[in-house]
Amino acid sequence: MNKNKDNELVFLPLGGSNEIGMNLNAYGYGPADDREWIVVDVGVTFGDPSTPGVDVIVPDPVYLEGENIRGIVLTHAHEDHIGALGWLWPRIKAPLYATPFTAYLIREKLRDAGLLDQVTLHEVPLGGTIDLGPFQVEMVTITHSIAEPNGLAIKTPLGTVLHTGDWKIDNDPVVGERTDIETIQRLGDEGVLAMVCDSTNVFVDGVAGSEGEVREALAELISGLKGRIAVGCFASNVARMDSVIRAAEAAGRRVALAGRSMHRITAAAKSVGMLSDIKPFLSEDEARHWPGEQILYLCTGSQGEARAALSRVADGSHPFIKLGRGDHCIFSSRVIPGNELSIGRLQDTLSERGVRIHTEKDTPGIHVSGHPCRDELRQMYQWARPRIAVPTHGMRRHIAEHALLAKDMQVPETVTPRNGDMVRLAPGPAAIIDEVPSGRLFVDGGMLVEEAGTALRERRHAASNGVLVVSFALDKRGKIVSDIDVRAIGLPGDEDQPLGDILDDLAERVEQTVRGLKGAALEDELVVEQAVARTLKKASQGVWSRRPIVETVVLRL
Amino acid sequence: MNKNKDNELVFLPLGGSNEIGMNLNAYGYGPADDREWIVVDVGVTFGDPSTPGVDVIVPDPVYLEGENIRGIVLTHAHEDHIGALGWLWPRIKAPLYATPFTAYLIREKLRDAGLLDQVTLHEVPLGGTIDLGPFQVEMVTITHSIAEPNGLAIKTPLGTVLHTGDWKIDNDPVVGERTDIETIQRLGDEGVLAMVCDSTNVFVDGVAGSEGEVREALAELISGLKGRIAVGCFASNVARMDSVIRAAEAAGRRVALAGRSMHRITAAAKSVGMLSDIKPFLSEDEARHWPGEQILYLCTGSQGEARAALSRVADGSHPFIKLGRGDHCIFSSRVIPGNELSIGRLQDTLSERGVRIHTEKDTPGIHVSGHPCRDELRQMYQWARPRIAVPTHGMRRHIAEHALLAKDMQVPETVTPRNGDMVRLAPGPAAIIDEVPSGRLFVDGGMLVEEAGTALRERRHAASNGVLVVSFALDKRGKIVSDIDVRAIGLPGDEDQPLGDILDDLAERVEQTVRGLKGAALEDELVVEQAVARTLKKASQGVWSRRPIVETVVLRL
Asked: Rounded to two decimals, what is the model's pTM?
């Protein structure tokens, strides 16, 4: 630990610096043993097939618990920036600050978590400023794939940090303001100590492209189609929804929303004056009775999520929306890595029904990314001219590549912390000065558990190898006085070896094993259990070439 | 069933027509009740995270069992074309036919399966002809991403079928012959009844590109790099290996192979005269003592496979190959859908070590696909001019799109069978005349089991929800005479609710449930088990918001 009594400015990523998503960043000011903190974003990441039963993963905030946190500022309303508030706020209690659209969605989240009464949530106007002790935080309007995205200019007595949040440079964002270039340039003129910056698209040349171009591409595509149209996109991208809705209206179609988050986000958007001059949505039920060529469904589920609208349309289980031959499904969305198979299955099931699929592969321009590509990163470095580059929001390979780009851009210092690395930004040269406890917590069965916990490890082992359960009763002298009950979970039999025969054979071996034990061994259930488990593991290897989990239950009478 | 006594020519896909991979096709000739058959390809597909514990999936050949099969022809040596021979040959015993390189690898496969003595394997020269009863099969040299790929011209008294196998048009395939355009055009002139054709890249415009171009791109990239170089590619692409080896030699580097299939394939390639004029490979051990700038490793594991060479290099567990800062890893390979996360993790781990990653994203041209894009498909239709198009080797969306392309190409008839659909090709118009038993068999614990089998379903359920096991003993009157043993597999506790407390509470509830049962109920173990299971399921819902698998073991004394 640095025991210096001088004031320092530190940056501490607890999420987002080893992955894309799960953002939780902290800035500290003060002497090492008495820092004041602000937290920027409290996001989740999502489980994948390697974490069965775990849908949501949050950063471990343990280091910040009990610290002097002056406020929590949320840059925008994507789940990887606000999604962990319900789980983590009780551990890092501090007032929340967000712009109105973001605040609307945070309020809903707190309500769901039963926290609404306990939390103070301050609505900050676009471009507004928040005073949080030694930190003066200015909201800097940027562009991204959601309404009201903000970068933060964090001013401290030791210098200004530009925390970009998720951004790109979109000169025609369709909804909301353009990137506030003047402010960023002014900050650059005044001197930016450090820029903590999005690395997502650092491997992509050029620029991400504009929502305005997407609007045109969608209008052209939609105007040329007959039959019903379903469009899958992320509800949180209000500009995209707006573009789809206007393309539909221009083509003489009414719009119906399908999926809970479509309704949730449109309510949030309307609360801040967006989506105001459009025709009322049809309900899904009304839309059923409308001619197919006059209807367009805006649907959740573009990632192939099992219970979302598009999947239910595809498998025919949606109560109101039926698509078939002559109808169209437009994917105005990216493929999130890891979702390729589920999206492929969804598109396949729709194809089976005769639905024509349109994606950015065959119709370029109907989707653009919300993150800066290399030319945009270069532009931002030219505007902000930071002394220190701190790449974040990326896997290690993105962060390493971003560091090279910053070097190319003549940024004097670059530091690439991992989650849990505390970076001193000032005074003196930037450096990682400490490594604090950090990690990921898994939401498992409604509990927050350690990433390396037993439960998930056991489930994974069971998923590949199955479970054998053997139970029997012993009397006081170690004689078996019940049946030997052997059960298999997730273990197969076939014609040559029916499962019943296998289990009978295993019971036989268990009996022999117990009979083979001598006096003292029989008095200790643990010894009996271990001997039986060894027998069953060895036998399983022979039968299934596997080592299932073996549970041996010895009941002593 | 069609009971016509006239001779018919039928095509029956049992794999490959609802997916990319797992190819198993049959052609039948004769009256409906007395057909002679040939089988084309006997391939596997691979499990994915939705099939934990199942790595290999094969087509169900049940319909062909006991039929009169004159021969099994293998078009090329990719696993999705020959990989199921070890599993399925015993069920569809017939002589095998393949060109020399393919035959070499089949022989190895049969040896591994202990079948080498039982199987007759005929080596057919390139361009050779096989007489199989009413079928005269001509091997037509094509190009693909493996050595010795073949299409088949299947001549029958009712017309000729061109079965393309996997192909593209590569005018500079680096290793092996070019596509035998003359033969395909001659077949077209003579009249092709039907073309059964690869659909993999039907959504990709233009052409796949040539191995010759890849050779140039790799040579340029490799010549400019310092430090150690590892190249990940598919071993079966001998042309690619050849290109990498020559690029290495031109840059003054010796080559070492890393990974079993690299050695297996180079042996197969050398057995047919390929890779003949190259310097001997260094062993991995020798290479260790070589200067880094004079070495290049050809590695397996470009898909992020956990036990392959590249993953072991990345995690530092490879016994001989160490890469670090200043070294390079080139991915001369595609991302197979479903492998995005594992490849991302691999690249990340390498980045962590300071290894620079090169992929086709940042260095275009270092990989090309082996399957025909739209312009190549159009070209093939112009050469072959079939009366009937039968798209295969695709998901349903690929097959539907391919049918549209065939229609555009003025092919008079198109038929799009699913696996198990029997297509009459002649006489009369093409039509699906029958649906036969078909499906996928899972290799699970060394057994071939039904796709919908219980074992995998249970493992999946356990993976997400865990398992609860409760065991206790009852005496003859239904009194509990042992401890109530409750165990959780894959279920968590936390600080508020330690797992031990939860299990104690569950045991308590089980006791109350059993005590609450009356006379007759207590005499029937099944009734007791069901009552206890109900209690535990309900309680689990409260504790974990989950429904684990509940095993209730009631031992009656």
From this structure: 0.90
